Amino acid sequence: MTDALEASEVRASAARDEAARSGATQDGAAPDEPAQSEAGPLRSLLDAVHDTVTEVRARQDDYFVRRPLRLPARLLAAGGDETAAASLARLLGDTYALTVEAVSDEAELTAVDRLAAARATRSGPRPAAPPPSAREAAALARLQEERRAAVTREADRIGAAAPERVGVLGGVLPYLAAGPRTEDRPPIVLVNALGMGTALWHPLMAVLARTHRVLTWAPRGTAPDSRPLRLRDQADDLAAVLAAEGARECHLVGWCSGPKTALAFHRRRPGAVRSMVFLHGSFRHTGDAAGREPDTPYERNLEELCRAVTARPALAGRLRTLFTGAPAPLPDDTPPHQAAEEVLARPARALDTELLRPFADDAVLVAYARQLLDYWADDALAHAGDVDVPVLCVGAEFDRIASPERLALAAGRFPRARHELLPGATHHSMYDRPAEVAALLAEFFAAAEPRSIVSGAPR
User: What is the CA radius of gyration of the chain?
Assistant: First the structure.
């Protein structure tokens, strides 16, 4: 099977359910689809509501208790028929346990509302069709939840599996591997962020592993008593994993600080990289003395923290608490537009512990700070013009960790790059929206395949 056909399979699966956790059963297969999709031609609308409501509730479970989901009347009924739009709004509300309102003035739509509307129209205009029955809508809601639970089970299985191991300078590197190993299809290497574990990748791995070998690991260098590592050491670890897998080529997907590791490896072995994806990547460079690079407030504050604890490690205990507080609940009187943007920008509550790994204790923070300053000192974009493989830069509308503006600017530095912005997404889209991200990656990888000179088909 060619990668182009595999990409088509992943896109089809994502179209059926672009929920944050859709698609795989415990053995990696998709749940059976009814011969006739429940809810018929309005399936995309119900999927859009389900996906959006699920994503928002993962951040704040009572968001819709006091706030409605507003949808354009034109989306709910052909010609904006107010009676038909109100009827479908009630059905959606009953199906997903919230209040849905049809509105004619689209200026009233919040960021949450716009996200649902954009998802509903992604496959084209809403067909003029009668609404599904309550039974059909309920059956689809059950199927959607089954898909979400299935990918969660598969993600949990991947996370609980015994890791592979490879010897590296200074010890042994455990890494996660999922999916088939094939000679004609390069693995996808998920290049993780400094200081992070692998849990954020597990849902995306569950989807990608249906068709590809997928590899990732927790970058070394922050564990107690570990030796200090630098950017070149992380690139060495990447090379060691590929050697252990017997892989001559790979697709690299770098998240956050990961793109700098990916580019360091590419500089060393350009022929081993078939394509690169920079997922909410950070090319932050502290050599930008003129201050022209757009930073997020988080990045500016984190640099101050890193410099302080590197200069005076004894301060780590006092300073790390500045980055470990949970977000405060949204007050009931928060204006609707502000509340929607705030809830979309937050990470899922299930990630609370995982995201605190770099601040777990004083020693971890000091080691993390030193590595991060080393990364920031590297001007990876100085070599962007030498990258002759396809590059995809994926930003997120509500990324408050790594500047999405900087990533958009960076895309213009690579000869064969394109930029995509995920509306309503955060820095953790691979966890929040694995099916959507997997479909985007599968399409990109298929287009990046070398083509036969004779037939023009993927080799």
Answer: 23
103: β partners: 72
148, 25 contact by CB (below 8 A): no
Look up residue 204 and give its two tokens. Answer: 């995306």
Give the Cα separation of 280 and 410 in Å (integer). Answer: 11
Per-residue tokens: 120 = 């509903």
At 173, phi and psi to the nearest 5? -105, 115
Cβ(160)–Cβ(222) below 8 Å: no
Q: What is the pLDDT of residues 112-143, one digit of tens each?
A: 999 999 999 886 666 666 788 999 999 999 99
Q: At what angle do helices 111-120 and 43-59 cross, to 10 degrees?
A: 150
- Torsion over CA: 332, 397, 437, 381 (sign): negative
pTM (predicted TM-score): 0.89
Answer positive or negative: Cα dihedral of 142, 143, 144, 146.
Answer: positive
pLDDT in tens, 228-251: 899 999 999 999 999 999 999 999
